[in-house]
Amino acid sequence: MASNPPGKCCFSGYRHEGETSGVHEMMYNVETYITGTTSPSDKVIVIMTDVYGNHFTNVLLIADQLALAGFKVYIPDILFGDIVSSMDGSVDFNGWLAKHDPITTRKIVDNFLSNLRKEFNPKFVGIVGYCFGAKFAVQQISEVDGLADICAIAHPSGVSIDELKLIGKNKPLLIAAAETDPIFPAELRHQTEDTLKEIGARYQIDLFSGVSHGFASRGDASDPVIKYAMDKALHDQIFWFKHFSKVNK
Q1: Residues assigned a catalytic role
Q2: Which of 55, 129, 154, 211 has the fewest C-beta atoms lying within 10 Å of its C-beta?
Q3: ∠200-230-50 over CA atoms, to 5°?
Q4: pLDDT by residue (tens digit) across 157-166?
């Protein structure tokens, strides 16, 4: 594995506060958060969530920031409504994961992106993945059957080496990693780097000290060290997508 399967730390974190600006609507039989005024035929970003789903204020606020940067942003429900609500790690995570197998989840993602492509034919499609969602984001920059042009993930879980090896050379990958992370520890981070170098991928890996797994989407915003890492990870994503959306035109 390039990152370990989701574990207890994937089921804990902090809630963020703020007013969101998007709406939830049905798209391709999936409830989807939609935000941004940019045309969907121009620049699109699709977010693959962690276990807290697409009603989680934290990820909606991230989507709104990406939208303000000039993208139409979608967050489809890849959890088929079965979201986690507890933030204290008390959830039976093995039981939850058993109901969210990779094959079923992949079908939801493929269906959403293929229909988005057919309906709007966007000039640029970026994809973001947090924790649980990172695996399905990486799959979408496969040279073989990926439907996205570029990817950004944070504290990934469940990504396999074989999935990394399929990444297209012209499909860049941005990774935000935590210094303390049993799911994406140093040895797997280095293995990921070696694999990306081996296949000639375009990539960037940012390692943030003083933070742990989940920091980018559900970190403690009252801690200045974590808040810096959260903000920087998002700013990096915005710069990443804005740069390559111009390159790909």
Answers
A1: 131, 181, 213
A2: 55
A3: 75
A4: 999 999 999 9
Residue 249: per-residue pLDDT: 53
- How far is residue 242's CA from residue 238's CA, in Å, rounded to a whole number? 6
Q: What is the pLDDT of residue 44?
A: 98
Cα 26 to Cα 151: distance, rounded to the nearest angstrom: 24
For residue 185, the tally of other CB atoms under 10 A from its CB is 16
Q: What would the two tokens of residue 244 be? A: 């390559």
DSSP code of 52? T
Q: Which residues contact 115 (CB under 8 A, 6 or more apart)?
A: 27, 28
Quick one: which of 74, 89, 211 has its CA closest to 147?
74
pLDDT of residue 193: 97
The answer to whether residue 248 scores a pLDDT higher than 80 is: no
Which tokens is 25 given? Answer: 């609507």
Checking if the pLDDT of 247 tops 70, the result is no
Q: What is the CATH number of domain 8-247?
A: 3.40.50.1820
Is it the case that residue 226 has pLDDT exceeding 70? yes
Q: Which residue, 132, 136, 131, 129, is CA-closest to 106?
A: 136
Q: Which amino acid is at 223?
A: D
Which strands make up the sheet holding 30-35, listed edge to edge?
23-27, 30-35, 72-76, 43-48, 124-130, 150-154, 173-180, 203-212
Q: pLDDT tens digits, residue range 54-92?
A: 999 999 999 999 999 999 999 999 999 999 999 988 889
Q: What distances in angstroms separate CA 215 from CA 62, 167, 181, 228, 247, one per listed residue?
A: 13, 25, 10, 10, 30
